[in-house]
Specification:
With 175 residues, the chain is of the alpha/beta class. It has helices spanning 24-33, 56-66, 82-89, 101-117, 137-145, 156-166; strands at residues 12-17, 39-45, 73-78, 93-98, 122-127. It has a domain at 12-129: HUPs (Rossmann fold, 3-Layer(aba) Sandwich), CATH 3.40.50.620.
Length: 175
């Protein structure tokens, strides 16, 4: 009887997004997805039509710092069609975090479009943990810009960088 030789096939997923900024919800999705996939590539989408707080380079740097102790997480950036990037990187799936039904409706449409463009790439939706459900980038940015703390919402390095960019202390003036 002949025994089949086994070789390790890397089960890799691409986790695309703007990550402006990265939140603990994003971090949670990546860490939980590592229980399913051998490798996650967190890919910052380059979208020149959208105004961002952080440049692509800054977001990639912060993501690298957040995931520096995760050996199976790589941080990259891409432009163009996501499915082309997925194929180029040899990944098998697109990973997306879902917070609400609104997210699901949007992601479902995107998944169908991606599937029609590249039938071999699977779409995996992962629900955000309840404690991170209502953390949106716009809410976090507003809190920080008004001098509030986002330490429960974003990693320390991200909050520090947000504070540098957004917080303008009020100067005492006439009332």
């Amino acid at each position: 009887m002949k025994t089949a030789r086994r070789h390790k096939i890397t089960n890799c997923a691409i986790y695309p997004g703007s990550f402006d900024p990265i939140t603990f919800g994003h971090v949670s999705v990546v860490r939980r997805a590592l229980k399913i996939f051998d490798r996650i590539i967190v890919a910052v989408a380059i979208n020149t039509s959208k105004r961002h707080t952080f440049s692509v380079k800054e977001r990639v740097r912060m993501l690298g710092q957040v995931f520096q102790s995760e050996g199976d997480v790589e941080v990259d950036s891409f432009s163009g069609l996501l499915v082309d990037y997925v194929k180029e990187r040899g990944a098998r799936a697109i990973l997306r975090g879902i917070r609400t039904m609104t997210d699901f409706d949007y992601e479902f449409q995107m998944a169908l479009a991606n599937k029609s463009l590249e039938p071999t790439v699977e779409q995996v939706f992962m629900m955000t943990e309840g404690k991170y459900l209502y953390y949106s980038s716009s809410i976090i940015k507003e809190i920080v810009s008004l001098g509030g703390s986002a330490r429960e919402m974003v990693p320390e390095i991200v909050e520090a960088n947000l504070r540098k960019k957004l917080w303008k202390p009020k100067r005492p003036g006439p009332h």
